[in-house]
Amino acid sequence: MIARRALLGGLTLGAGGLLSGCDRLNASPGFRGLLEGAEQLHYRSQRLLAGGGALAREYGRADMSPRFRTNGNIRPSSPDYLAHAAANFADWRLVVDGLVARPLSLSLSDLGGFPQRAQITRHDCVEGWSAIGKWQGPQLAAILRAAGLSSRANFIVFHCADDFGGVPYYESIDLNDAFHPQTILAVLMNDHRLPVPHGAPVRLRVERQLGYKHAKFVMRIEAREQIDNLHSGKGGYWEDRSGYAWYAGI
Amino acid sequence: MSDAPGPDPTPPAVGGDLVDRHRLATRLWHWVNVVALVVMVMSGLMIFNAHPRLYWGQYGANPDHAWFEIGSRGDEGFARLGAAEVATTGVLGVWRDEAGAVQRRAFPHWATIPSSYSLADARIWHLAFAWLLALGLLAFMVASLFNRHFKRDLTIRRAEIRPSHVWADIKDHARLRFPTGAAALRYNILQKISYAAVIFLLLPLVILTGLTMSPALTSGWAWLLDLFGGRQSARSLHFLAMAGLILFALVHIAMVLLAGPFNEVRSMVTGRYRLPREREERP
Protein backbone atom coordinates (compact mmCIF):
# COMPACT_ATOMS: atom_id res chain seq x y z
CA MET A 1 0.00 0.00 0.00
CA ILE A 2 2.83 2.37 0.92
CA ALA A 3 4.64 1.56 -2.29
CA ARG A 4 1.44 2.19 -4.20
CA ARG A 5 0.86 5.52 -2.49
CA ALA A 6 4.48 6.52 -3.10
CA LEU A 7 4.05 5.62 -6.75
CA LEU A 8 0.84 7.64 -7.06
CA GLY A 9 2.53 10.56 -5.33
CA GLY A 10 5.44 10.18 -7.70
CA LEU A 11 3.11 10.15 -10.69
CA THR A 12 1.39 13.36 -9.51
CA LEU A 13 4.75 15.04 -8.97
CA GLY A 14 5.91 13.71 -12.31
CA ALA A 15 2.85 15.15 -14.05
CA GLY A 16 3.45 18.56 -12.46
CA GLY A 17 7.11 18.41 -13.42
CA LEU A 18 6.18 17.34 -16.93
CA LEU A 19 3.93 20.37 -17.37
CA SER A 20 6.37 23.00 -16.20
CA GLY A 21 9.14 21.10 -17.97
CA CYS A 22 7.25 21.27 -21.27
CA ASP A 23 6.66 25.00 -20.85
CA ARG A 24 10.37 25.49 -20.13
CA LEU A 25 11.30 23.42 -23.18
CA ASN A 26 8.77 25.42 -25.20
CA ALA A 27 10.62 28.62 -24.29
CA SER A 28 14.10 27.17 -24.97
CA PRO A 29 15.42 28.34 -28.36
CA GLY A 30 17.51 25.18 -28.84
CA PHE A 31 14.60 22.80 -28.27
CA ARG A 32 12.21 24.91 -30.36
CA GLY A 33 14.76 24.92 -33.16
CA LEU A 34 14.82 21.13 -33.01
CA LEU A 35 11.02 20.89 -33.15
CA GLU A 36 10.79 23.51 -35.90
CA GLY A 37 13.28 21.46 -37.90
CA ALA A 38 10.39 19.06 -38.55
CA GLU A 39 8.90 21.69 -40.91
CA GLN A 40 11.68 20.90 -43.38
CA LEU A 41 10.80 17.20 -43.06
CA HIS A 42 7.16 17.98 -43.84
CA TYR A 43 8.10 20.18 -46.78
CA ARG A 44 10.52 17.70 -48.32
CA SER A 45 8.48 14.55 -47.70
CA GLN A 46 5.24 16.11 -48.93
CA ARG A 47 6.90 17.58 -52.03
CA LEU A 48 8.24 14.07 -52.66
CA LEU A 49 4.85 12.38 -52.19
CA ALA A 50 2.53 15.01 -53.65
CA GLY A 51 4.84 17.58 -55.18
CA GLY A 52 4.24 16.69 -58.80
CA GLY A 53 1.08 17.67 -60.59
CA ALA A 54 -1.18 16.02 -58.01
CA LEU A 55 -4.34 18.08 -57.58
CA ALA A 56 -6.19 18.77 -54.37
CA ARG A 57 -9.58 17.02 -54.26
CA GLU A 58 -12.23 18.85 -56.30
CA TYR A 59 -15.85 18.47 -55.25
CA GLY A 60 -19.28 18.65 -56.86
CA ARG A 61 -21.83 21.39 -56.30
CA ALA A 62 -23.75 19.16 -53.88
CA ASP A 63 -20.70 19.00 -51.59
CA MET A 64 -20.43 22.78 -51.09
CA SER A 65 -20.81 24.30 -47.61
CA PRO A 66 -24.26 25.90 -47.28
CA ARG A 67 -22.54 28.85 -45.60
CA PHE A 68 -18.84 29.63 -46.03
CA ARG A 69 -17.68 31.33 -42.83
CA THR A 70 -15.25 34.24 -42.85
CA ASN A 71 -12.27 34.78 -40.61
CA GLY A 72 -9.18 36.93 -40.21
CA ASN A 73 -9.70 40.48 -41.43
CA ILE A 74 -13.09 40.93 -43.04
CA ARG A 75 -12.72 44.59 -44.05
CA PRO A 76 -9.40 46.38 -44.57
CA SER A 77 -9.40 49.82 -42.97
CA SER A 78 -7.09 51.74 -45.32
CA PRO A 79 -8.83 54.73 -47.02
CA ASP A 80 -7.27 53.74 -50.33
CA TYR A 81 -8.82 50.26 -50.16
CA LEU A 82 -12.19 51.57 -48.99
CA ALA A 83 -12.29 54.05 -51.90
CA HIS A 84 -11.62 51.22 -54.36
CA ALA A 85 -14.27 49.05 -52.68
CA ALA A 86 -16.78 51.92 -52.91
CA ALA A 87 -16.01 52.21 -56.65
CA ASN A 88 -16.40 48.44 -57.08
CA PHE A 89 -12.65 48.23 -57.85
CA ALA A 90 -13.20 49.90 -61.26
CA ASP A 91 -9.86 51.79 -61.17
CA TRP A 92 -8.05 49.25 -59.02
CA ARG A 93 -4.87 47.66 -60.41
CA LEU A 94 -2.97 44.56 -59.35
CA VAL A 95 0.77 45.19 -59.45
CA VAL A 96 3.11 42.38 -60.51
CA ASP A 97 6.77 43.30 -60.00
CA GLY A 98 10.05 42.27 -58.43
CA LEU A 99 12.22 39.77 -60.32
CA VAL A 100 10.25 39.94 -63.56
CA ALA A 101 11.24 41.13 -67.04
CA ARG A 102 7.97 43.05 -67.60
CA PRO A 103 6.26 44.48 -64.49
CA LEU A 104 2.47 44.45 -64.91
CA SER A 105 -0.42 46.55 -63.70
CA LEU A 106 -3.63 44.59 -64.20
CA SER A 107 -7.26 45.68 -63.95
CA LEU A 108 -10.02 43.22 -63.08
CA SER A 109 -10.89 42.94 -66.78
CA ASP A 110 -7.20 42.30 -67.59
CA LEU A 111 -7.30 39.43 -65.08
CA GLY A 112 -10.41 38.13 -66.87
CA GLY A 113 -8.39 37.98 -70.11
CA PHE A 114 -6.01 35.31 -68.78
CA PRO A 115 -6.92 31.61 -69.00
CA GLN A 116 -9.42 31.01 -66.21
CA ARG A 117 -9.78 28.06 -63.90
CA ALA A 118 -12.87 27.22 -61.82
CA GLN A 119 -12.58 24.75 -58.96
CA ILE A 120 -14.74 23.58 -56.08
CA THR A 121 -12.23 22.92 -53.33
CA ARG A 122 -11.97 22.55 -49.58
CA HIS A 123 -10.58 25.40 -47.51
CA ASP A 124 -8.84 24.03 -44.41
CA CYS A 125 -8.22 26.51 -41.62
CA VAL A 126 -5.22 25.92 -39.35
CA GLU A 127 -7.73 26.01 -36.48
CA GLY A 128 -9.31 22.79 -37.72
CA TRP A 129 -12.50 23.70 -39.57
CA SER A 130 -13.13 23.19 -43.30
CA ALA A 131 -15.49 24.83 -45.79
CA ILE A 132 -16.06 23.91 -49.43
CA GLY A 133 -16.59 26.64 -52.01
CA LYS A 134 -16.22 27.39 -55.70
CA TRP A 135 -13.39 29.66 -56.81
CA GLN A 136 -12.64 31.08 -60.24
CA GLY A 137 -9.88 33.26 -61.63
CA PRO A 138 -6.68 33.33 -63.71
CA GLN A 139 -3.95 30.82 -63.01
CA LEU A 140 -1.01 32.47 -61.30
CA ALA A 141 1.35 30.63 -63.65
CA ALA A 142 -0.08 32.46 -66.69
CA ILE A 143 0.41 35.85 -65.05
CA LEU A 144 3.98 35.03 -64.01
CA ARG A 145 4.75 33.91 -67.57
CA ALA A 146 3.27 37.12 -68.97
CA ALA A 147 5.47 39.12 -66.62
CA GLY A 148 8.58 37.12 -67.60
CA LEU A 149 9.62 35.63 -64.25
CA SER A 150 13.36 35.84 -63.73
CA SER A 151 15.34 32.64 -63.21
CA ARG A 152 16.65 34.22 -59.99
CA ALA A 153 13.18 34.23 -58.42
CA ASN A 154 12.53 31.57 -55.76
CA PHE A 155 9.43 32.95 -54.04
CA ILE A 156 6.23 34.74 -54.95
CA VAL A 157 5.10 37.24 -52.31
CA PHE A 158 1.52 38.53 -51.94
CA HIS A 159 1.19 41.99 -50.39
CA CYS A 160 -2.29 42.63 -49.02
CA ALA A 161 -4.48 45.65 -48.24
CA ASP A 162 -5.35 44.50 -44.72
CA ASP A 163 -3.35 44.83 -41.54
CA PHE A 164 -3.43 43.84 -37.88
CA GLY A 165 -2.74 46.87 -35.70
CA GLY A 166 -0.81 48.57 -38.49
CA VAL A 167 1.27 45.49 -39.42
CA PRO A 168 0.41 44.59 -43.02
CA TYR A 169 -0.70 41.09 -44.00
CA TYR A 170 1.44 39.29 -46.52
CA GLU A 171 2.17 35.73 -47.56
CA SER A 172 4.66 33.89 -49.75
CA ILE A 173 4.85 30.58 -51.62
CA ASP A 174 7.54 28.72 -53.54
CA LEU A 175 7.56 28.24 -57.32
CA ASN A 176 6.21 24.67 -57.05
CA ASP A 177 3.00 26.07 -55.58
CA ALA A 178 3.07 29.21 -57.76
CA PHE A 179 3.01 27.10 -60.94
CA HIS A 180 0.57 24.47 -59.64
CA PRO A 181 -2.50 24.33 -61.91
CA GLN A 182 -4.91 24.96 -59.00
CA THR A 183 -3.04 28.04 -57.79
CA ILE A 184 -5.31 30.84 -58.98
CA LEU A 185 -6.09 34.45 -58.20
CA ALA A 186 -9.76 34.06 -57.34
CA VAL A 187 -11.98 36.93 -58.46
CA LEU A 188 -15.22 34.91 -58.27
CA MET A 189 -16.48 32.92 -55.30
CA ASN A 190 -19.53 30.67 -55.64
CA ASP A 191 -20.16 32.28 -59.09
CA HIS A 192 -20.31 35.85 -57.74
CA ARG A 193 -17.75 38.62 -57.49
CA LEU A 194 -15.57 37.87 -54.48
CA PRO A 195 -17.25 39.57 -51.48
CA VAL A 196 -15.15 41.96 -49.37
CA PRO A 197 -15.13 39.68 -46.26
CA HIS A 198 -13.64 36.91 -48.41
CA GLY A 199 -10.87 39.11 -49.82
CA ALA A 200 -12.19 41.29 -52.67
CA PRO A 201 -11.06 41.99 -55.27
CA VAL A 202 -8.53 39.11 -55.42
CA ARG A 203 -7.77 36.22 -53.12
CA LEU A 204 -4.95 33.73 -53.62
CA ARG A 205 -6.00 30.07 -53.74
CA VAL A 206 -3.11 27.72 -52.98
CA GLU A 207 -5.10 24.54 -52.50
CA ARG A 208 -2.46 22.22 -51.02
CA GLN A 209 -1.88 24.47 -48.01
CA LEU A 210 -3.84 25.74 -44.99
CA GLY A 211 -6.06 28.81 -44.97
CA TYR A 212 -3.61 31.44 -43.75
CA LYS A 213 -1.55 30.99 -46.93
CA HIS A 214 -4.60 32.01 -49.04
CA ALA A 215 -3.91 35.76 -48.86
CA LYS A 216 -6.99 37.98 -49.18
CA PHE A 217 -7.15 41.57 -50.55
CA VAL A 218 -4.06 40.98 -52.75
CA MET A 219 -2.71 44.32 -54.02
CA ARG A 220 0.74 43.44 -55.25
CA ILE A 221 2.53 40.28 -56.33
CA GLU A 222 6.29 40.41 -55.99
CA ALA A 223 8.82 37.85 -57.23
CA ARG A 224 11.79 37.56 -54.89
CA GLU A 225 15.00 35.61 -54.54
CA GLN A 226 14.72 35.52 -50.73
CA ILE A 227 12.00 36.11 -48.14
CA ASP A 228 14.19 36.24 -45.03
CA ASN A 229 14.92 39.91 -45.70
CA LEU A 230 11.25 40.93 -45.83
CA HIS A 231 9.25 42.17 -42.81
CA SER A 232 10.31 39.95 -39.86
CA GLY A 233 11.80 37.37 -42.19
CA LYS A 234 9.51 34.34 -41.77
CA GLY A 235 7.66 34.76 -45.07
CA GLY A 236 4.19 35.69 -43.85
CA TYR A 237 2.19 37.68 -41.31
CA TRP A 238 1.24 34.77 -39.02
CA GLU A 239 4.67 33.20 -39.47
CA ASP A 240 6.26 36.45 -38.25
CA ARG A 241 3.79 37.15 -35.48
CA SER A 242 3.09 33.77 -33.88
CA GLY A 243 5.56 31.29 -35.28
CA TYR A 244 3.15 29.42 -37.58
CA ALA A 245 5.00 27.27 -40.10
CA TRP A 246 5.80 28.89 -43.45
CA TYR A 247 5.09 25.55 -45.12
CA ALA A 248 1.45 24.89 -44.26
CA GLY A 249 0.85 21.63 -46.13
CA ILE A 250 -0.03 19.89 -42.88
CA MET B 1 29.15 -47.37 -20.74
CA SER B 2 26.69 -46.37 -18.19
CA ASP B 3 23.65 -44.43 -19.18
CA ALA B 4 24.86 -41.35 -17.32
CA PRO B 5 22.49 -38.51 -17.78
CA GLY B 6 23.54 -35.45 -19.79
CA PRO B 7 23.65 -32.01 -18.28
CA ASP B 8 20.51 -31.14 -16.41
CA PRO B 9 17.93 -29.42 -18.58
CA THR B 10 17.05 -25.98 -17.20
CA PRO B 11 14.36 -26.58 -14.65
CA PRO B 12 11.05 -24.92 -15.50
CA ALA B 13 10.63 -21.47 -13.98
CA VAL B 14 8.46 -21.34 -10.89
CA GLY B 15 6.99 -18.63 -8.74
CA GLY B 16 9.68 -16.48 -7.12
CA ASP B 17 12.20 -16.88 -9.98
CA LEU B 18 13.64 -13.76 -11.62
CA VAL B 19 13.33 -14.35 -15.37
CA ASP B 20 13.70 -12.49 -18.68
CA ARG B 21 10.39 -11.08 -19.80
CA HIS B 22 10.49 -8.16 -22.26
CA ARG B 23 12.91 -7.87 -25.18
CA LEU B 24 14.99 -4.72 -25.69
CA ALA B 25 12.97 -3.61 -28.75
CA THR B 26 9.73 -3.87 -26.79
CA ARG B 27 11.10 -1.97 -23.80
CA LEU B 28 12.67 0.76 -25.94
CA TRP B 29 9.50 1.31 -27.97
CA HIS B 30 7.29 1.24 -24.89
CA TRP B 31 9.02 4.25 -23.33
CA VAL B 32 9.54 6.14 -26.60
CA ASN B 33 5.83 5.65 -27.20
CA VAL B 34 4.93 6.86 -23.69
CA VAL B 35 6.79 10.13 -24.33
CA ALA B 36 5.37 10.48 -27.86
CA LEU B 37 1.78 9.79 -26.79
CA VAL B 38 1.86 12.12 -23.77
CA VAL B 39 3.14 14.97 -25.96
CA MET B 40 0.74 14.14 -28.81
CA VAL B 41 -2.30 14.06 -26.53
CA MET B 42 -1.45 17.24 -24.63
CA SER B 43 -0.46 19.27 -27.71
CA GLY B 44 -3.45 17.78 -29.53
CA LEU B 45 -5.84 19.02 -26.84
CA MET B 46 -4.40 22.52 -27.33
CA ILE B 47 -4.98 22.22 -31.09
CA PHE B 48 -8.57 21.14 -30.35
CA ASN B 49 -8.92 24.29 -28.22
CA ALA B 50 -8.50 26.38 -31.39
CA HIS B 51 -11.79 24.98 -32.71
CA PRO B 52 -13.50 22.84 -30.05
CA ARG B 53 -16.16 21.35 -32.34
CA LEU B 54 -16.24 18.04 -34.26
CA TYR B 55 -18.13 17.24 -37.46
CA TRP B 56 -18.85 14.35 -39.82
CA GLY B 57 -18.20 14.68 -43.55
CA GLN B 58 -15.93 16.57 -45.93
CA TYR B 59 -16.56 20.05 -44.49
CA GLY B 60 -17.52 21.46 -41.10
CA ALA B 61 -17.28 24.93 -39.59
CA ASN B 62 -19.20 27.15 -37.19
CA PRO B 63 -22.43 27.39 -39.27
CA ASP B 64 -22.56 23.58 -39.61
CA HIS B 65 -23.87 21.00 -37.13
CA ALA B 66 -21.21 19.71 -34.73
CA TRP B 67 -21.80 16.27 -33.16
CA PHE B 68 -19.49 17.15 -30.27
CA GLU B 69 -18.61 20.50 -28.79
CA ILE B 70 -16.97 21.98 -25.70
CA GLY B 71 -17.92 25.58 -25.05
CA SER B 72 -19.07 28.25 -22.64
CA ARG B 73 -22.10 30.41 -22.02
CA GLY B 74 -21.20 33.25 -19.73
CA ASP B 75 -19.50 31.65 -16.73
CA GLU B 76 -20.82 28.14 -17.45
CA GLY B 77 -18.68 25.60 -19.23
CA PHE B 78 -20.36 22.73 -21.06
CA ALA B 79 -19.66 19.64 -23.14
CA ARG B 80 -22.30 18.62 -25.66
CA LEU B 81 -22.56 15.21 -27.34
CA GLY B 82 -25.39 15.23 -29.87
CA ALA B 83 -28.35 16.61 -27.95
CA ALA B 84 -26.99 15.67 -24.51
CA GLU B 85 -25.23 18.41 -22.61
CA VAL B 86 -23.36 18.29 -19.30
CA ALA B 87 -22.09 21.19 -17.16
CA THR B 88 -18.30 21.13 -16.99
CA THR B 89 -17.54 24.49 -15.35
CA GLY B 90 -14.11 24.45 -13.73
CA VAL B 91 -12.72 21.68 -15.94
CA LEU B 92 -13.87 22.16 -19.55
CA GLY B 93 -15.05 25.32 -21.29
CA VAL B 94 -14.55 27.65 -18.33
CA TRP B 95 -11.69 27.19 -15.84
CA ARG B 96 -9.08 29.13 -13.88
CA ASP B 97 -5.46 29.26 -15.01
CA GLU B 98 -2.43 29.07 -12.70
CA ALA B 99 -2.71 32.79 -11.99
CA GLY B 100 -6.37 32.34 -10.98
CA ALA B 101 -7.75 34.15 -14.05
CA VAL B 102 -10.91 32.77 -15.67
CA GLN B 103 -10.23 31.28 -19.11
CA ARG B 104 -12.82 30.27 -21.69
CA ARG B 105 -11.10 27.52 -23.64
CA ALA B 106 -12.09 23.87 -24.00
CA PHE B 107 -9.29 21.95 -22.27
CA PRO B 108 -7.63 23.42 -19.14
CA HIS B 109 -4.01 24.53 -18.75
CA TRP B 110 -2.93 21.37 -16.89
CA ALA B 111 -3.95 19.18 -19.84
CA THR B 112 -2.26 21.06 -22.70
CA ILE B 113 1.16 21.77 -24.21
CA PRO B 114 1.93 24.62 -23.93
CA SER B 115 -0.13 25.44 -20.85
CA SER B 116 -1.23 28.88 -22.10
CA TYR B 117 -3.07 29.24 -25.40
CA SER B 118 -0.88 28.95 -28.49
CA LEU B 119 -2.07 27.03 -31.53
CA ALA B 120 1.22 27.76 -33.34
CA ASP B 121 3.36 26.29 -30.54
CA ALA B 122 1.09 23.27 -30.05
CA ARG B 123 1.35 22.51 -33.78
CA ILE B 124 5.15 22.69 -33.64
CA TRP B 125 5.18 20.09 -30.83
CA HIS B 126 2.44 17.92 -32.33
CA LEU B 127 3.85 17.74 -35.85
CA ALA B 128 7.41 17.07 -34.67
CA PHE B 129 6.48 14.31 -32.20
CA ALA B 130 4.19 12.81 -34.83
CA TRP B 131 7.33 11.59 -36.59
CA LEU B 132 8.52 9.92 -33.37
CA LEU B 133 5.12 8.26 -32.90
CA ALA B 134 4.82 7.00 -36.48
CA LEU B 135 8.44 5.97 -37.09
CA GLY B 136 8.59 4.44 -33.60
CA LEU B 137 5.56 2.28 -34.32
CA LEU B 138 6.98 1.28 -37.70
CA ALA B 139 10.35 0.30 -36.18
CA PHE B 140 8.63 -1.66 -33.39
CA MET B 141 6.47 -3.51 -35.91
CA VAL B 142 9.47 -4.48 -38.04
CA ALA B 143 11.47 -5.55 -34.96
CA SER B 144 8.52 -7.55 -33.60
CA LEU B 145 8.16 -9.44 -36.86
CA PHE B 146 11.85 -10.34 -36.83
CA ASN B 147 12.14 -11.23 -33.13
CA ARG B 148 8.81 -13.07 -33.35
CA HIS B 149 7.23 -11.00 -30.56
CA PHE B 150 3.99 -10.71 -32.53
CA LYS B 151 3.88 -14.39 -33.42
CA ARG B 152 4.84 -15.75 -30.03
CA ASP B 153 3.15 -13.31 -27.70
CA LEU B 154 0.32 -11.51 -29.49
CA THR B 155 -1.11 -14.08 -31.89
CA ILE B 156 -4.55 -15.05 -30.69
CA ARG B 157 -5.04 -18.80 -30.85
CA ARG B 158 -8.33 -20.49 -31.69
CA ALA B 159 -8.75 -22.01 -28.23
CA GLU B 160 -8.29 -18.62 -26.61
CA ILE B 161 -11.24 -16.94 -28.26
CA ARG B 162 -13.76 -19.57 -27.22
CA PRO B 163 -16.44 -17.63 -25.32
CA SER B 164 -15.98 -19.87 -22.27
CA HIS B 165 -12.25 -19.08 -22.16
CA VAL B 166 -12.79 -15.34 -22.62
CA TRP B 167 -15.47 -15.38 -19.91
CA ALA B 168 -13.17 -17.23 -17.52
CA ASP B 169 -10.47 -14.60 -18.15
CA ILE B 170 -12.95 -11.77 -17.55
CA LYS B 171 -13.94 -13.38 -14.24
CA ASP B 172 -10.27 -13.77 -13.25
CA HIS B 173 -9.66 -10.07 -14.01
CA ALA B 174 -12.76 -9.01 -12.08
CA ARG B 175 -11.59 -11.01 -9.05
CA LEU B 176 -8.03 -9.72 -9.53
CA ARG B 177 -6.79 -13.30 -9.77
CA PHE B 178 -3.66 -12.77 -11.85
CA PRO B 179 -1.72 -15.75 -13.22
CA THR B 180 1.17 -17.08 -11.16
CA GLY B 181 4.40 -18.93 -11.91
CA ALA B 182 5.40 -19.46 -15.54
CA ALA B 183 1.83 -18.77 -16.65
CA ALA B 184 2.41 -15.09 -15.80
CA LEU B 185 4.88 -14.89 -18.72
CA ARG B 186 2.13 -15.38 -21.28
CA TYR B 187 -0.35 -12.67 -22.17
CA ASN B 188 -3.91 -13.69 -21.40
CA ILE B 189 -6.62 -13.20 -24.00
CA LEU B 190 -7.81 -9.81 -22.70
CA GLN B 191 -4.24 -8.53 -22.75
CA LYS B 192 -3.69 -9.86 -26.26
CA ILE B 193 -6.90 -8.23 -27.52
CA SER B 194 -6.14 -4.86 -25.95
CA TYR B 195 -2.46 -4.77 -26.99
CA ALA B 196 -3.35 -5.85 -30.52
CA ALA B 197 -6.11 -3.22 -30.67
CA VAL B 198 -3.62 -0.51 -29.71
CA ILE B 199 -0.81 -1.66 -32.01
CA PHE B 200 -2.82 -2.66 -35.08
CA LEU B 201 -5.95 -0.53 -34.82
CA LEU B 202 -5.81 2.60 -32.63
CA LEU B 203 -2.25 3.75 -33.38
CA PRO B 204 -2.52 3.22 -37.18
CA LEU B 205 -5.94 4.90 -37.06
CA VAL B 206 -4.67 7.94 -35.17
CA ILE B 207 -1.69 8.26 -37.56
CA LEU B 208 -3.69 7.85 -40.80
CA THR B 209 -6.51 10.18 -39.71
CA GLY B 210 -3.85 12.72 -38.73
CA LEU B 211 -2.34 12.50 -42.22
CA THR B 212 -5.83 12.86 -43.76
CA MET B 213 -6.06 16.36 -42.27
CA SER B 214 -3.05 17.46 -44.36
CA PRO B 215 -4.24 19.22 -47.54
CA ALA B 216 -0.90 18.54 -49.27
CA LEU B 217 -0.84 14.84 -48.46
CA THR B 218 -4.41 14.23 -49.58
CA SER B 219 -3.54 15.80 -52.95
CA GLY B 220 -1.21 12.86 -53.52
CA TRP B 221 -3.13 10.32 -51.44
CA ALA B 222 -6.78 11.23 -52.10
CA TRP B 223 -7.79 7.69 -51.05
CA LEU B 224 -7.31 8.78 -47.46
CA LEU B 225 -10.28 11.15 -47.83
CA ASP B 226 -12.40 8.28 -49.20
CA LEU B 227 -11.23 5.84 -46.54
CA PHE B 228 -12.37 8.06 -43.66
CA GLY B 229 -15.29 9.84 -45.34
CA GLY B 230 -13.76 13.30 -45.54
CA ARG B 231 -11.40 15.59 -43.69
CA GLN B 232 -13.81 16.49 -40.90
CA SER B 233 -14.74 12.82 -40.35
CA ALA B 234 -11.01 12.08 -40.14
CA ARG B 235 -10.64 14.84 -37.53
CA SER B 236 -13.49 13.32 -35.49
CA LEU B 237 -12.01 9.80 -35.78
CA HIS B 238 -8.59 11.22 -34.80
CA PHE B 239 -10.16 12.56 -31.60
CA LEU B 240 -12.03 9.30 -30.89
CA ALA B 241 -8.88 7.22 -31.47
CA MET B 242 -7.10 9.46 -28.96
CA ALA B 243 -9.92 8.87 -26.47
CA GLY B 244 -9.50 5.12 -27.03
CA LEU B 245 -5.76 5.36 -26.39
CA ILE B 246 -6.35 7.30 -23.17
CA LEU B 247 -8.87 4.69 -22.02
CA PHE B 248 -6.31 1.96 -22.75
CA ALA B 249 -3.60 3.85 -20.84
CA LEU B 250 -5.82 4.28 -17.78
CA VAL B 251 -6.77 0.58 -17.63
CA HIS B 252 -3.16 -0.42 -18.41
CA ILE B 253 -1.79 1.71 -15.54
CA ALA B 254 -4.51 0.42 -13.17
CA MET B 255 -3.54 -3.17 -14.03
CA VAL B 256 0.15 -2.43 -13.45
CA LEU B 257 -0.67 -0.96 -10.03
CA LEU B 258 -2.81 -3.97 -9.11
CA ALA B 259 -0.36 -6.57 -10.41
CA GLY B 260 2.60 -5.10 -8.51
CA PRO B 261 4.01 -1.85 -9.87
CA PHE B 262 7.68 -2.40 -8.92
CA ASN B 263 7.94 -5.78 -10.59
CA GLU B 264 5.93 -4.70 -13.64
CA VAL B 265 7.85 -1.45 -14.22
CA ARG B 266 11.18 -3.24 -13.65
CA SER B 267 10.31 -5.78 -16.31
CA MET B 268 9.65 -2.95 -18.78
CA VAL B 269 12.94 -1.19 -17.83
CA THR B 270 15.51 -3.96 -17.29
CA GLY B 271 13.52 -6.80 -18.84
CA ARG B 272 13.75 -8.86 -15.63
CA TYR B 273 10.54 -10.05 -13.99
CA ARG B 274 9.95 -11.99 -10.80
CA LEU B 275 7.33 -14.65 -11.36
CA PRO B 276 4.45 -14.30 -8.92
CA ARG B 277 4.42 -17.14 -6.37
CA GLU B 278 1.81 -19.83 -6.76
CA ARG B 279 -1.24 -19.28 -4.60
CA GLU B 280 -1.87 -21.72 -1.82
CA GLU B 281 -5.06 -23.45 -2.70
CA ARG B 282 -7.66 -22.87 -0.04
CA PRO B 283 -10.56 -25.17 0.45
Question: Care to give the gist of this entry?
Answer:
Chain A is of the alpha+beta class and 250 residues long.
Q: Could you list some keywords that capture this structure?
A:
heterodimer; A: 250 residues; alpha+beta; Sulfite Oxidase, Chain A, domain 2; five-stranded mixed sheet; four-stranded antiparallel sheet; 8 helices; globular; B: 283 residues; Fumarate Reductase Cytochrome B subunit; two-stranded antiparallel ribbon; 9 helices; 51% helix; 10% strand
Could you characterize what this model shows?
The complex is a heterodimer of chains A (250) and B (283). Chain A has 250 residues and is α+β, with helices and mostly antiparallel strands. In chain A, 32% of the residues lie in helices and 24% in strands. Chain A contains eight helices and eleven strands. Chain A has a five-stranded mixed beta sheet. In chain A, strands 3-4-8-9 form a four-stranded antiparallel beta sheet. In chain A, strands 7-10 form a two-stranded antiparallel sheet. In chain A, a hairpin with a 2-residue loop joins strand 5 (155-164) and strand 6. The longest helix of chain A has 26 residues, at 2-27. Chain B is an alpha+beta fold and 283 residues long. Chain B has a domain at 18-52 and 116-274: Fumarate Reductase Cytochrome B subunit (Up-down Bundle). Helix content of chain B is 51%, strand content 10%. Chain B has nine helices and eight strands. Chain B has helices at 24-50, 119-146, 149-154, 163-174, 189-212, 217-220, 223-228, 231-259, 261-269, and strands at 18-20, 53-54, 68-73, 76-81, 84-87, 95-96, 102-103, 272-274. Chain B has a four-stranded antiparallel beta sheet with strand order 2-3-4-5. Chain B is globular, with a radius of gyration of 23 Å. At the A-B interface, helix 1, helix 2, helix 3 and strand 4 of A face helix 1, helix 2, helix 6 and helix 8 of B.
